[in-house]
Every structure is written in C-alpha cells, then in structure tokens.
Amino acid sequence: MAVTQFEPAYARQCFPCWDEPSFKANFNITLLDVPSELVTLSNMPVDEEELNGNLKTVYYQESPVMSTYLVAVVIGLFDYIEDHTPDGIKVRVYSQVGKANQGKFALHVALKTLGFYKDYFQMPYSLPKLDMVAIPDFACGAMENYGLVTYREKDLLFDDHHSAAANKQRVATVVAHELAHQWFGNLVTMEWWTDLWLNEGFATWMSYMAKDKLFPEWKIWTQFFDHECSEGLRLDGLAKSHPIEVEVNHASEIDEIFDTISYKKGASIIQMLKGYVGGPHFQNSLATYIKRHAWSNARTNDLWAVLKEECNEPTIDKIMNSWTKQEGYPVLSVKMKNQTLEIKQSRFLYAGSHDRCRWIIPITYCCGDYDSLISLLMEKKSETYDIKDLLSNITDPARSWIKLNVEQIGFFRVKYDDGLAAKLRYAIEHKCLSVTDRLGILDDSFALCMARKMSLTSLLTFMAAYREELEHTVLSNLIKIIGKIERIVADARPELMNYINQFFIGLLLPAAANFGWDPKQGESHLDAMSRGDIFTALAVLGHEETINEANSRFNAFLNDRNTPLLHPDIRKAAYVAVMQKVTSSNKAGLASLLKVYRETDLSQEKIRILGSLASCPDESVVYEALNFALSSEVRKQDAVFVLAVSKEGREVAWKWLKNNWDKIWTTYGSGLLLNRFVGAIVSSFASSEKMKEIGMFFGNRTQASMVRTLKQSMEQIYINSKWVQTIRNDKDLAEAVKKLANK
C-alpha cells in the first residue's frame, strides 16, 4: 500500500508547490506506471485509465480549488463497500481484502453525517464522491484529505463480534470529525496555521453535534465535558500552554500545535460561545460564514465579523479575543456574604495563580433548582450579585445549594467557599444536581487539589459523596482522578497506600455490582462502556476478586475465542488483570496475551493488549513490554499504547527511554508520536531531582518540534513535586483516609 500524508507541510516533498494553506489551486492528478491489479484513489473520481501491459496510467478529474495539504493519493489492494446519499454522492469505505464488512458502521455514520452537515451549514457536500480508507499503519488518527479521507483501521473499522462499545463510539467520533472538515478546513480553510483552531476546534465540536443527532441515547454533550473541556482545562492550566491563536513562524513549529489547545479548548470555547449567543443564531452565523468564505481562506476575525452581524452582538470580538489571544483561563472564587455572591476571577495555574490576566466571562448560576437560572457577563476582576430574591424562595435545606457554570458550558473553574462547597456535597449525595454538574464539580475539585488550593483530605472526603454514582461520564472522570491520586500518594505517603486503595475500591464496588461482568438485556451504550472502565480500574487497584474472576474468564477465552464469558467490553479489564499476576519468574499470562496478539488481525484488539502489557507491577516485566513495543511485531503507530506504565514501572520506563532514545528519534523523527513518548514517561515524576536529571538528558537532544511538549512535561513534574510536599504536610490525611477506608 502507498499512502500520502501532506498535512501540515509535506506536499513540497512530493511536487513543487507553494505549500501554504492560503495558496489554493486546482489539481490535475495523473498516476503513471501503476501495477494494473492495484486500486488507485485520489481526491476526485477517475476520468480515464490507459492500460500498457501489466501497468496502467490513471487520470483523475480536475479538483476544485483547494490547499496543497489536502491533496492525496492511495494505491493498494482493497475491498470496499459503497452507498449513495439521497442527492447522489457516492460514498465508499475501503479496507484491506477480507475486512469490507467491518466498514458498514462507518458507512452508515458517513451517510447520515453528510446529510446532517448539509442541512446545518445550508451547503451541500462539494465533491462528487467521498472515499474513506482504513490504513494499517498511520501516524495520525485520521486525515481529512478532500474527498479521500484516510484513517487508522481502529478509527474506521468495527467488528460486530470483537469490537467494544467504546470502539463504536470512537469510529463515530472520528468519522464525524473528518467529515466536518470537508466544510471547516477544506471548503473554508484557515489562512495560516495560527488559526488552526478554526479547522480542528470546529471539527471537534461539530462531531458532537452529529453524534447527538445520530445517537441521542449516548448523552454525548455530557461526554463532551469529560473528553474535551476537562482535557482542555488540564493542559491550559500549565504556564507553558499557548494561546488558541498561536504564532507559527516556521514549518517545524506546526506539528506541536495539533494539540489539546487547538482541538479541545477550541471546541470548548465554541460551545461556550454557542451557549452565549443561542443555538439558532450560532447556526445561522456558521452557515453565513461558510457561504461567504467558500473556496477561500479565513481568519478568526472573519468568524467574529459574521457573528457580530448575525447575532447583533457588537462586542463578540472583544469577548472572544480574551479567550483566543491569551493563554490560560480563569478560576472564579465564589463567596456568599449577606445574601450576595462575591465573585473574583484570576488565572488558574496548577503552579500557582496570578492576577495579571482578565477574561470577559459568560456566567450562569442557579440556586436550589434549575428553574432559577441566571445568565450574565462578568467583565471586571471582581463583581457582586444580589441573590436575596432567589434565596427567599428556598425553604428546603436540600435546595439551599448554589451552582455556577450550569451544565459546565463555560471554560473556567469554580472555587466555592467552605459553606457553599458543603451544600453542594449534600446536593450531590441527594441526587439534586445534573450529571454534567456532578462531573464538573468533581473535576474542579481535583484540579484545585493539584493546585494546592484544596487539601487532599478535603478532596477524598468530597469524593466519598460519589459512592453510589452510576453515570458513565462521572465514573470515567472519577476513575481518572483515582489513578492520579494513586500515583501521587505513592510518592508522598506510601504508608497510606493500602488505606487509599481500600477507599477507592469501596467507591467503585457499588457500580461494579450494578453493571456486573455480563451484558444485560436492553442496557445502554453508556452502561456497556462503564462495565469495562470499572473492572479495569478495580484490577489496577489490586482487587483480588476482580483479578481472579477476570483471569478465569480470560482462560475460557484462550480455549474459545467466541466464548460469551469475555465480551469485548471487558477484554481490556481482563488483560490488565492478567498482567497483575505476571512476574519475572512467572510469565505465563504475558505469553498467553502475546499469543492472542499474534493471532488477531483486528487493530482494536491488538491495541487493547498493548495498552495492558506495561500495567504489570513487576519492573522487569514492564521493561520487557516496552522493548516489545519497539519490536517488528508492533506497528510504529501502536508503540505509544504500551506507554501506559504502572506506577511501579515509572523509573524503569525512564531508564528504557534513555537507553532507546536514539532508536526512537530515528524511527519517529519530529512527528506527533515522538512527543507521546516524551510526555507519557517524563510527566509522571514528582521530584526536583528528577527534573534536573531529565533536563540534563534532553539538554543536547531537544529538537524544535518537541520543545513545547518537553517544557510542559517538566512543568508537570514541578507541579507534582509541590503537590507531594503539600500532601506530606497534611496532618489530617492519615486519620481521614483510615476512616474513609473503613466505611
């Protein structure tokens, strides 16, 4: 198979061109001397083929005007399935021979999504065909080449018998994202890479619009906060973040900005803006923007100009510039005093806040119920709001809570005073808050704890309010937090680890009992995803009953790959559980997992196994797993999945990275995947000594394309080290953890 990948600036390596997004052109593609048995694809349909013995020359129709980075060619042996949209667009999914049926779900999503986008943007898809191709080894997740979208196999193919619910959602997400680019990016293209967020932020956000339309039962907008906004807030809480509109001065700098800020923060401020101006106004504005700049280029200010006209909001650019032109975001400190709310804004930084920045913030809040919703715009550093009329209607103590940033629409964090926080905890325990608000309060609380604005004792006590939680998105966030606390306590207070584990296991067991190991008739898509998450977390926490049951089911799976005892939704949990029992003197479980790996040709299954190998507590086994990642048996794109290393394996992973750095650099060069190696391994440490050691190692090895990632990883170590010191000084922690563990 031969595949091109020209984004961001690689078309120049294939043909002479002005390789910048603003230099659009029409392209006439001709492929010469192609073996006649191979399938050839490009952006446009074939115009003519000429056979010359065993070779052929393929001429394609002239393309509409487009940027060089969107030109594409794919050549190989393929099967395909096809269908047509109601207005005659031919849509095909290409795969390796024998895998055509695995493209059915993606084809369904593509057909429905094209129709939805046509209506939403009031503009039809602009090419006569759309091909989507599954690529076995592909550094990017997917690439939106005009009319010829390329994907990793795991992001396009879905196997009814061996793919999990999470895989299904991933395929829908990536297909919807790439097809949104056919409008936002391909039809209307950013003028320069500084405005990359216009491509990636909007494609990310629009993918949720499409998924909500196609699969309303997925409750996708609650997942939006967990998958997009929360991750955006995490990275943007670093001093080494960057603005959404980031200066790009050289081609070597472009790869690094295909990051959480451009995608996830970009999508999050779009959601906040839509909430501020209203859905219908926002949709009309986007349709006008697309029509006005079709077949051309645009800057961020062009979008603001349209919104000002369509929404009659003359200050849109002033409001939004505070979010796109400066890095970071605010934390709102909220106090209740004499029936008034006092709100102060300051920049949230994990390493410590400062007050030099100011945002214009769309704020919502409610008191006691969601019918009392108030919306306002905060422009000053500090403001006071009289709420006595709202409070006068509250007679039930359970309804005396006040929640800011209702449904987590705003891209900011909230820090409540002790009294307001206690009432919110009561509201969570009594199921008075929405799923998204429970999720947002939990996420903010953890971030405040990491930033040393809230003690770990207080956070753990607050987390106890989630003991009966069953909603997928809240559980997903809770599990991520549990993993991070586990690692930091292992560094700060290892003598408390048994109590911490016991407490966390107790938090998750009610959900485990509710979901059980086996699928239930009529259960939701979200419950299916939760099952795997819960049992994976319990295995990592060392819960013996979970580990034993998972190993038993895995053994049945070894004997019969179609056994119902190991449903795809729980396979990752089983594989992690198997690795918990592997030691340097007993590697039978590892050998069995590798046997499954070698026998399957399903990319999603291989990744489940790779993501489990280094979860083993035994350091020597972790080292062996990491060596396997660089072997010829693992595709280059997939090696990064092995970097999910156990807390016990962090030091050996760092040693491995140093020993293999030259090979990793030679293999991955300056691409996106190289930064995954650096970030995953470096940022897990928590001492100033380790910072110095890492700084010395990378002193003469840092390349331009990894500078920002390395700085962010080093800052994370600094944050972790300060957090460790705070936890060591928390005099109430030991007693609190012991009480929580015994509840």
UniProtKB/TrEMBL annotation:
Record keyword Protease present: yes
Places the protein is found: Microsome membrane
EC id: 3.4.11.-
Domain Peptidase M1 membrane alanine aminopeptidase: from-to ranges: 105-323
All residue ranges annotated as the Aminopeptidase N-like N-terminal domain in the record: 1-70
Required cofactor names: Zn(2+)
EC top class, as a word: hydrolase
Site for Transition state stabilizer, residues: 263
Pfam families per the UniProt record, alphabetical: ERAP1_C (PF11838), Peptidase_M1 (PF01433), Peptidase_M1_N (PF17900)
Chief subcellular location: membrane
One biological process term in Gene Ontology: proteolysis
Membrane topology: Peripheral membrane protein
Family: Belongs to the peptidase M1 family.
Protein known as: Aminopeptidase
Phylogenetic placement of the source organism: Eukaryota, Viridiplantae, Streptophyta, Embryophyta, Tracheophyta
